[in-house]
Design goal:
By secondary structure, the chain is α+β, with helices and mostly antiparallel strands. The protein is 24% helix and 35% strand. The protein is built from 17 helices and 35 strands. The strands form four sheets. The protein has a 14-stranded antiparallel β-barrel. A twelve-stranded antiparallel barrel has the order 2-3-4-5-6-7-8-9-10-11-12-13. A five-stranded mixed β-sheet has the order 14-15-16-17-18. Helix 3 (277-287) runs antiparallel to helix 4 (315-329).
C-alpha cells in the first residue's frame, strides 16, 4: 500500500500561467507517459527537467502516470494501471476486498538516449518497461527517430522490441505549420495484447497488433490526444512543466530593497555607542524586511550583524539587502561591515566587506563584480562570529503588531492564519491533506486535517516546537485488515492511530541547537517527535571545507506513543542510530547513504538519490536494505520486501510573484511497512544547512547580491548545469602511458621467476595447511578468518573509491590507479580460472584435480588478487609495506575457510601485486592530467583535465 502525503496542501492562483504559456515547451507522451506516439515509444527523451503527469485510457487499461527527465539522457515514468474486467481481490458482495475495485498494478518504465540526432544520424534510445515488482508489462526495445523538413515539423520512428512491444514497431508525427499546436500521429502498434495478464478475461484478449491514428493538441503546458484503433478509441490528457526553468512568473510584488533616504542622519562611532537607539533603528529596518534574530554590534569601527531571513530564498540576495541597510545606518568612520547569516541562530556564513565605498559603488552599478570581489571575504562562520543576546537592543526595537492575520493564497497555501515576530516566534494554522492508496478494503484512503503549529524561542538556540492536528474528514480508520508483519509494528498500525482520536498533539519538542566549532553543528531534542513516537536524542553534523560531502550521526531513544495522541504510551521501546554520508555528484545530484539501526531494530543501509533542477525543484528516490525480513505482500520468506519510495519537492517561489522559502512536497511510499523505517526528525541539520551551504560555495558565494539587471545571466546568479565529464581523454591517456611503458623482457623474466617461485613454494604448503584447517573447520577463529578474507578486499576497493571521491590530487591519482589495477587483475584472474579449472579444497578431489564448474574454479584466488591490486599503488606511493601484511592476512582467510589452496592465494597476490606495480610505475607521475572534483575558491568543478 502506498502513502501520498502533501503537507501542507498548496495551490496558487498564479497557476493561470499554465494556460497562458503558449510558447512553453510541451512534451509528447504516449498513453503510458513515455515520449512517443499513441502506445509506441519514440527515441526522444524530453528536455532535461521536464515533469509531466496525466491520465490515459486505452481499453482495458487506465493509467495515471508521472514522467520526469531526471537526467538529460534519462527519462523515468511511473504508472498506476487499472485493468477493467479483473477484480483486485473479489467481486463477491460483502467479502473483504470487494470495495477495492479493479485490479491495479504499479509500473516503472525507463528510456535511455544513446545517440543524439544530427544532420544525418537519427536519435537512438533504448527502453525498458515494468522494471520492478510484478513485471506484468515487462518489455525491452530499441528505437530510432529522425525529424524532417526545414521546420523539423515531421518525424518518423522505427524500432524493435521484445515482449512489450513484441517485434517491429513504427510511428510518425506531423505538425502542420498552418495550425500551431495541432499534430497528427500514426503508429504500428506491436504489442501482442493476447499475451497480457489474464487477457482472456478482459478486452485485451480481443485486440491484436495493427495500425492506429490520432489527433493531438498542445497549449502551453497542457496537452490532449484522441486516437482511433481498429475497434475502439483511446484518450490521453496531461500537463508538462519545465522544471529546468528558473521561475515561471516574474517577481512583480517583491518588496524593493531598503531606501537609504529613509535612514537617519549619520553620527560618529562614539555617538552610536552612547545612543542605543541607533542600533535599534538598524535592527528595526531589517525586521521590516523579514529579517529575524537580528543582532547588531559596533566593534572597533567594524559594524557586525548576525541575522537570518525566512522569506528570501537566496542567501546572497538576503545578505545584499542587509548590506544596503547597514550601509545606510553605519556611523561615520566605519571601516568594515561583517554580516553573519544564521539558521536557528547557528552561524553558517560570514561576509566581510572591507571597502565600504567600493561596496556602495557596486550596489549602485558604478563598479563591476570583479573589482568588488577584491575587497570581500566570504567564509564559513565560527562560533566567535555569534553576537550574544542584547536585551536592551531587543527591547528598543519597535515592531508592528504581530496579531493573527488571515492570509489567502500566501506562500501557496489556500488559506492560513499566521502570527510571527522578529525572533521567529510563530503561530500558524494551515490545511493538510494526505492520500493512502492500494488498501484491499478500498483503493483510495484520505485524510483532511487542520494543523496548528506554534514555535517559540526560549533562549540562544533553544526552541519549543508544537504541532496540533484536528482531523476534519478521513476514512483511513476504516482499514480493518491486521498486518501480518513479523517485525515490531512500528508503522503498520497506522489505522489504529487514526481511530484513536480526531484532535491530537502530534509534536511537542524542546530543541537545542549548537555550533560546536567551525562547520560542526549539533542538536539535542526531547519530547513528542511525531504522532507515533516520543523520546530524546540528538544529531551531530560535520561540513568539511570540501563542499562535495558532509556527514552526520543521529541517535534517538524512542517509545511508541498511544493511539489517543496525547500522553498515553505503548510498550515498544527502541534506540535508533543512523550515520549518514552525503555526496554531491554532477548534474546537482546528491547521493546519501545511511547505515545503522532503524525503527524496527533492523540493521542495514538506506540509499537516497535526489536531483535538483535550475528551478530548485528536487526529484528523488530511496531504497533500504536491512536484515529485517518483511514478508508482507509482495514480500515472501525467500524474497523479503525492502522499503522504497519516491518524492518531489517544489519551491513555491517559482510560481509566486514574490520570493518565498516555502515548498510543496509530495511523496509516494508504502504506508503499512515496518522494515527500513525512520522516525520523523525533530530538525534535520543537513536539510537545514544544505541550501545556505550551496549558496556559499557556488562561484563567489554572492549569488544575486546586488540584484543588478546586468548580472542576471552571470554564472553566480544563474549557475550553469554541471554535466558528467567526458572520461575518454584521460582514459586514453592512461592507456597510452601504461602500454608505452610495459616491462622489458629482462623485467618480465625476473618477475616470472620470482612469482613462479613463490607460487611453487605455496604449493608445498597446500596439503599441510588444508589438513590443519580441515581438522579445525567450524571453529570460531576459522570462521572469523574466512569472513575477513571475504570482506577485506571489498573494503579495500571501497577505500580506493573513497580516495577518488574525497582525497587530494595525489590520493585521487592513487585511487584511480588502484581501481584500474583491481579491474585489470580481476579480469586476468577470471580468465585464468576458466583455463586452469582447478578444484577447490572443499570439493575433496585432491590438490591437482579439475573442477566441473570452471567459472568457480580455485586457481587463482580472486579475493587475494583484488586485495593486493588495491593496496599495491598506495603501499608503493606512501611507502607503507604494512598494507601488504593486511592484504596477505586477509587473503589467507580464504585458505582458512578451505575455499582456496595456499598456492591459489599466493598466485592471486602475485597477480594483483604485478598489476598494481606496473600501473603505479607508469601513471604515478600524472602531471598531464587531474581528476578535478576538488572545489575552487567558491565553486565545485567536476571534470577531467588533461594535457597531451
Amino acid at each position: 500500500m502506498l502513502k501520498s502525503s502533501r503537507s501542507p496542501f498548496k495551490y496558487s492562483w498564479y497557476s493561470c500561467i499554465i494556460f497562458g504559456a503558449v510558447n512553453a515547451f510541451a512534451s509528447t507522451p504516449t498513453l503510458q507517459g513515455q515520449s512517443g506516439y499513441i502506445n509506441m515509444p519514440s527515441a526522444w527523451v524530453e528536455r532535461d527537467g521536464t515533469f509531466s503527469t496525466g491520465y490515459g485510457y486505452d481499453r482495458p487499461y487506465g493509467s495515471f502516470w508521472v514522467s520526469a527527465t531526471v537526467l538529460p539522457f534519462l527519462q523515468l515514468t511511473g504508472r498506476y494501471v487499472s485493468v477493467t474486467g479483473i477484480p483486485g481481490f473479489t467481486n463477491v458482495e460483502g467479502e473483504y476486498g470487494q470495495k477495492y475495485g479493479r485490479y491495479k498494478d504499479k509500473v516503472i518504465d525507463a528510456k535511455l538516449r544513446l545517440v543524439n540526432e544530427s544532420s544525418w544520424v537519427p536519435e537512438v534510445s533504448v527502453g525498458a518497461t515494468d522494471l520492478l515488482g510484478t513485471e506484468l508489462f515487462k518489455g525491452r526495445y530499441l528505437v530510432a527517430t529522425k525529424t524532417f523538413g526545414s521546420a523539423r515539423n515531421a518525424e518518423a520512428s522505427i524500432g524493435y522490441g521484445r515482449k512489450r512491444p513484441d517485434g517491429v514497431f513504427a510511428g510518425i508525427r506531423w505538425a502542420p505549420l498552418s495550425t500551431p499546436g495541432w499534430a497528427m500521429v500514426a503508429e504500428y502498434d506491436a504489442n501482442d495484447y493476447k499475451k497480457d495478464f489474464r487477457a482472456a478475461e478482459t478486452a485485451a484478449g480481443e485486440r491484436s497488433k495493427g495500425g492506429s491514428v490520432g489527433l493531438e493538441y498542445r497549449w502551453g503546458w497542457l496537452g490532449a490526444q484522441v486516437a482511433r484503433h481498429r475497434d475502439h478509441f483511446s484518450a490521453n490528457v496531461y500537463v508538462s512543466i519545465p522544471f529546468s526553468e528558473r521561475e515561471f512568473i516574474p517577481k512583480l510584488y517583491e518588496p524593493a530593497p531598503f531606501d537609504a533616504k529613509k535612514a537617519p542622519a549619520g553620527v560618529s562611532a562614539a555617538e552610536w555607542q552612547q545612543d542605543g537607539s541607533r542600533g535599534a533603528a538598524l535592527a528595526e529596518a531589517l525586521v521590516e524586511q523579514d529579517f529575524k534574530n537580528v543582532r547588531v554590534e559596533l566593534d572597533s569601527n567594524v559594524l557586525k550583524l548576525t541575522l537570518t531571513n525566512n522569506r528570501i530564498s537566496s542567501m546572497g540576495r538576503a545578505i545584499g539587502r542587509a548590506a544596503r541597510t547597514a550601509l545606510a545606518f553605519a556611523p561615520e568612520g566605519t571601516r568594515a561591515i561583517h554580516i553573519t547569516y544564521t539558521k536557528l541562530e547557528q552561524p553558517i556564513a560570514t561576509y566581510e566587506f572591507q571597502d565600504l565605498q567600493r561596496l556602495t559603488d557596486y550596489l549602485t552599478g558604478l563598479r563591476n563584480r570583479d573589482e568588488f570581489l577584491q575587497t570581500v571575504l566570504v567564509r564559513y562562520s565560527t562560533p566567535t562570529d555569534r553576537i550574544d543576546d542584547q536585551q536592551s537592543l531587543l527591547a528598543a526595537v519597535r515592531e508592528e503588531s504581530n496579531g493573527l492575520a488571515v492570509q489567502v493564497g500566501q506562500d501557496g497555501n489556500i488559506v492560513q492564519v499566521v502570527s510571527e515576530d522578529r525572533e521567529a516566534n510563530r503561530f500558524k494554522t494551515i490545511p493538510k491533506i494526505s492520500f493512502f492508496f492500494n488498501d484491499p478494503s478500498g483503493a483510495l484512503r484520505y485524510e483532511v486535517a487542520a494543523a496548528a503549529n506554534y514555535d517559540r524561542r526560549l533562549g540562544q538556540g533553544t526552541y519549543l516546537n508544537t504541532d496540533f492536528k484536528l482531523d476534519l474528514f478521513e476514512n483511513v480508520s476504516g482499514v480493518t485488515q491486521k498486518s501480518n508483519s513479523l517485525l515490531p509494528h512500528v508503522r503498520t498500525d497506522v489505522a489504529e492511530y487514526k481511530r484513536g482520536g480526531r484532535f491530537k498533539l502530534n509534536r511537542l519538542l524542546l530543541n537545542q541547537y549548537l555550533t560546536l566549532d567551525e562547520r560542526i553543528y549539533a542538536r539535542a531534542s526531547a519530547g513528542f517527535y511525531e504522532e507515533m513516537y516520543r523520546g530524546f536524542g540528538g544529531q551531530v553534523l560535520y561540513l568539511p571545507k570540501d563542499s562535495r560531502w558532509a556527514a552526520d550521526l543521529s541517535v534517538d531513544a524512542l517509545q511508541q506513543r498511544g493511539y489517543k495522541g496525547w500522553f498515553d504510551k505503548r510498550d515498544y521501546k527502541t534506540v535508533t542510530a543512523l550515520g549518514a554520508l552525503h555526496y554531491k555528484l554532477p548534474y546537482d545530484i546528491t547521493a546519501t547513504a545511511r547505515a545503522g539501526r532503524f525503527l524496527a531494530r533492523d540493521e542495514g543501509v538506506r540509499l537516497e538519490f535526489k536531483r535538483r533542477f535550475q528551478s530548485g525543484v528536487e526529484i528523488g528516490a530511496w531504497y533500504a536494505k536491512t536484515n529485517g525480513r518483511d514478508i508482507t505482500n509482495p514480500g515472501t520468506p525467500a524474497n523479503p520486501y525492502n522499503d522504497k519510495g519516491v518524492f518531489l519537492s517544489v519551491p513555491l517561489n517559482i510560481m509566486l510573484p514574490m520570493d518565498s522559502q516555502a515548498t510543496a512536497g509530495i511523496g509516494l511510499s508504502p504506508w503499512t511497512r515496518d522494515v527500513g523505517q525512520m522516525v520523523a526528525s525533530p530538525g534535520d541539520l543537513y536539510e537545514l544547512f544544505e541550501q545556505p551551504r550551496r549558496d556559499l560555495t557556488t562561484y563567489d558565494g554572492l549569488g544575486n547580491f546586488a540584484e543588478r539587471r546586468d548580472e542576471q545571466n552571470h554564472p553566480a546568479v544563474n549557475p550553469p548545469l554541471r554535466p558528467i565529464p567526458n572520461m575518454w581523454p584521460i582514459f586514453r591517456w592512461r592507456l597510452e602511458q601504461s602500454f608505452s611503458n610495459t616491462p622489458t623482457l629482462p623485467q618480465w623474466a625476473k618477475g616470472t621467476i620470482l612469482g613462479g617461485g613463490a607460487i611453487l613454494g605455496g604449493a608445498l604448503l597446500d596439503k599441510p595447511v588444508d589438513r590443519f584447517m580441515e581438522k579445525h573447520a567450524g571453529s570460531r577463529v576459522a570462521r572469523a578468518w574466512d569472513n575477513m578474507g571475504k570482506g577485506i578486499p571489498v573494503l579495500l576497493a571501497g577505500g580506493a573509491a573513497g580516495a577518488v571521491a574525497f582525497g587530494d590530487a595525489r590520493a585521487q591519482n592513487m585511487g584511480i590507479i588502484s581501481l584500474e589495477s583491481i579491474a585489470g587483475a580481476a579480469a586476468v584472474s577470471i580468465a585464468t580460472k576458466r583455463i586452469v579449472g582447478r578444484a577447490r579444497p572443499s570439493e575433496g578431489q585432491g590438490q591437482w584435480s579439475k573442477t566441473s564448474d570452471r567459472s568457480n574454479a580455485s586457481f587463482p584466488s580472486n579475493h587475494s588478487t583484488v586485495a593486493f591490486a588495491a593496496v599495491t599503488p598506495f603501499a608503493q606511493e606512501y611507502d607503507a609495506p604494512w598494507l601488504y601484511g593486511l592484504a596477505a592476512a586477509s587473503s589467507m582467510g580464504r585458505a582458512a575457510g578451505r575455499q582456496h589452496w595456499v598456492s591459489d592465494v599466493v598466485a592471486g597476490g602475485v597477480l594483483g601485486y604485478a598489476m598494481g606495480s606496473w600501473l603505479w610505475q607508469t601513471q604515478r607521475s600524472n602531471t598531464g592530467s587531474n581528476f578535478a572534483v576538488a572545489p575552487g575558491p567558491k565553486s565545485v568543478n567536476v571534470a577531467w583535465r588533461g594535457s597531451y
